[in-house]
Write a structure and sequence with these properties.
Alpha-Beta Plaits; 11 strands; 10 helices; ribonuclease H; alpha+beta; 2 domains; 3-stranded antiparallel β-sheet; 4-stranded antiparallel β-sheet; RNA-DNA hybrid ribonuclease activity
Length: about 280
Amino acid sequence: MERQGVIVKVTEPTEWVNSMVVAEKPRTGQLRVCLDPRDLNKAIKRPHYPLPTLEYITSKLAGAQYFSVLDARSGYWAIRLTEESSRLTTFGHYRFLRLPFGLISAQDEFQRKTDETYEGLNGVMAIVDDILIYGMTKAEHDNNLFVMLERSRERGVKLNPERSVICATEVSYFGHLLTADGVKPDPAKVGAVRDMEPPKDKGELETVLGMSNCLSKFALGLSDVNVPLRQLLKESSEFVWDVQHDKAFKKMKELLTCQPGPVLAYFDPLKELRLQVDASKY
């Protein structure tokens, strides 16, 4: 990290000294050095920059036929810290020269920089370091991709070819499959749900319901099916797994893993729009 220019030695006293933690990268299994800046985060004013949602991304994809997903290499480390900010990130005998993981403002700043980098480009959107390029025709997609790559070169953004997919009709993006027809559930997530065992306590049940919630938009009536499971999470409820819970658990898995799975069409503003609203006397 010192050779890469990510950290530098500190030889003088500093006002802040943070702990260091080592985390495993989820995709590669490699180790990542992170700060444990719990005290520092209390003193940082978080900018609260809005992170694009998958729903926002897919609302722009009506008519898209070709997709690419590119990964920004080095992630947060691509952002250089000011001298003042760098001295706040001291750990041991080193301090960060690049934006470290763990800071409460890191994701906000990274998303802001990414949006600024690709501002004004057609068919280019990004959530953190995953950049999506799309087009209604192959020619349009290729042009959008070329312009995006030129902008990346101009701004010094390095991309990871090993984790990139170029000009495909179907790509995996944030736990979903983006296709020419619409959004599908990612087979990896569907497989994980299919392999789930009944939970043994409330903690495992929360994990199960969290996984199912990620795919809930593909399962009509899911909220009605898992009512018995959600009731087990009440503070006043003791975790006792019986026949009704086992039945609800199996039905929930059937809804989430049925094949062929549903395809949700992209929102198309050119088509007729109908609003279905709920009302209350309150």
